[in-house]
Design goal:
There is one protein chain. The protein has 394 residues and is an alpha+beta fold. The protein has a single domain, classed as Orthogonal Bundle (Cytochrome p450). The chain contains 13 helices and 13 strands. It has helices spanning 19-27, 47-55, 88-101, 104-124, 134-139, 141-150, 158-169, 176-199, 205-210, 218-260, 265-275, 308-311, 346-363, and strands at residues 6-7, 32-35, 40-44, 59-60, 132-133, 283-287, 291-293, 296-298, 303-306, 368-369, 378-381, 384-387, 391-393. The strands form four sheets. Strands 1-2-3-9-6-4 form a six-stranded mixed beta sheet. Strands 5-13-10 form a three-stranded antiparallel beta sheet. Strands 7-8 form a two-stranded antiparallel ribbon. Strand 2 and strand 3 (40-44) form a beta hairpin. Helix 4 packs across helix 6 (141-150) and helix 7 crosses helix 8 (176-199). The longest helix has 43 residues, at 218-260. The radius of gyration is 21 Å and the shape is globular. It starts with 5 loop residues before the first strand and ends with a strand.
Length: 394
């Protein structure tokens, strides 16, 4: 293992994947890497391999399995109550229930209030030629307030929820003891929220999940809410900031295109999610049986890393992959997973992003970067490379 390349690779240029991915796609598409947290795994870098792996029921996402490599630092993915770490029947029940609660009718019903929150955030931001941090003013609070509304969390608790979600998803630096305290407080808050909603039903996503018909236990519901808050806030916020930055690169070429053709925003969301995917991260799977993939065979018990950004830049599927194009043929977004582990909130996330971009184009048409792209500061975390500040003018 000492001779294996270390993963994750060093970061590439601004908003571009590390060059090692292209090298491995052409010369070593099914080779092993040593994980910096410990253990080794096959690194998948071709779109067809990643798509096949996500669809295979033999590729387990359960991080609690004894064969799964793990490091010395705490990681929320190894939490025993996490949905992905549940048995097959429990996972199927919970995943089915959450998917139904976040289905097309719920997505359609959120558009108006997402737009109202987005508009209010931009209206409250000062009209100034001076630099403003778009992360603090818009890309961070928007998904936070939307998720709070969907889960009946009062706005007055939003700041606490944000801090807890960041600690749970490990997008802030804390000691093990500090993180344990934050997660314990987060769990206690969510447990009290679940009790309150069960005692006083309403019409939110949480109410649907807490209804007797859903059949979820309190423990299952608490785990689901923690995951929805963390993914719905941190992942969407990270994606939105990266998408806006991508549009503002190359002398605002993408931004100008969308201003001239706002009807392209839905297609732009798909393309931006591909091109601006959350950096140099990969999902861990362990084969529970022999799995035949296009580039090779995975033995039972073998760990595999799915390098999303490599697959999303595979020229076999996306010709000229570093180019921003809103007219690409539709391809299933592998970044949302697949099979029984496909993200149940994918439709909702895309709708939040669509409304966020539409509102930003309408309210801040002259948006532009206030600093050179290379001055934008990223930090690598479990969910990807998070933009710390996005200085802009409008």
């Amino acid at each position: 293992m000492d001779d294996l390349p270390l993963f994750p690779f060093p970061p590439g240029p601004v908003m571009e994947p590390p060059p090692e991915y292209a090298e491995r796609r052409s010369g070593c598409p099914f080779g092993k890497v040593a994980m910096r947290t410990g253990g080794e795994a096959i690194l998948l870098v071709r779109h067809r391999d990643i798509a096949a792996a996500t669809a295979s029921p033999l590729m387990s996402r359960n991080h609690a399995r004894p064969q799964v490599p793990r490091g010395n630092s705490p990681d929320f993915l190894y939490a025993p109550d996490l949905l992905i770490n549940q048995g097959t029947d429990t996972h199927a029940k919970v995943h089915r229930t959450v998917t139904r609660a976040l289905g097309p009718s719920r997505v359609a019903s959120t558009s108006e209030f997402v737009g109202s929150i987005a508009g209010a955030l931009l209206d409250s931001a000062p009209d100034t030629a001076g630099p403003a941090d778009l992360v603090a003013a818009y890309t961070s609070p928007l998904p936070l307030l939307v998720v709070c509304r969907l889960l009946r969390i009062p706005d007055r608790d939003a700041a606490r929820i944000h801090a807890w979600a960041a600690a749970y998803a490990q997008v802030i630096s804390l000691t093990s003891e500090e993180r344990d305290r934050e997660v314990e407080d987060f769990t206690g808050y969510v447990a009290a929220l679940v009790t309150r909603v069960r005692d006083d039903p309403g019409d939110s996503v949480l109410d649907e999940l807490a209804s007797p018909a859903a059949g979820l236990t309190d423990a299952e519901l608490v785990s689901v809410v923690k995951l929805l808050v963390s993914a719905g806030v941190e992942a969407v916020s990270t994606a939105l900031a990266r998408m806006v930055l991508q549009l503002l690169l190359d002398r605002r070429a993408g931004w100008t295109q969308l201003r001239e053709r706002p009807e392209s925003v839905p297609a732009a969301v798909d393309e931006l999610l591909r091109l601006a995917y959350e950096g140099n991260v990969a999902a861990l799977r362990v084969a529970t049986g022999k799995v035949e993939l296009p580039s090779g065979t995975v033995a039972a018990g073998q760990a595999v890393l799915l390098a999303w950004i490599a697959g999303l830049h595979d020229p076999e599927v996306y010709p000229d992959p570093t180019r921003l194009r809103f007219d690409r043929p539709s391809v299933r977004m592998i970044g949302f997973g697949g099979g029984r582990h496909i993200c149940p909130g994918a439709g909702l996330a895309k709708e939040i992003l669509r409304v966020a971009l539409t509102t930003l184009l309408d309210r801040r048409p002259d948006l532009r970067l206030a600093v050179p792209p290379e001055a934008i500061r990223f930090e690598a975390h479990k969910i990807g490379n998070v933009i710390q500040e996005l200085p802009v003018r409008w």
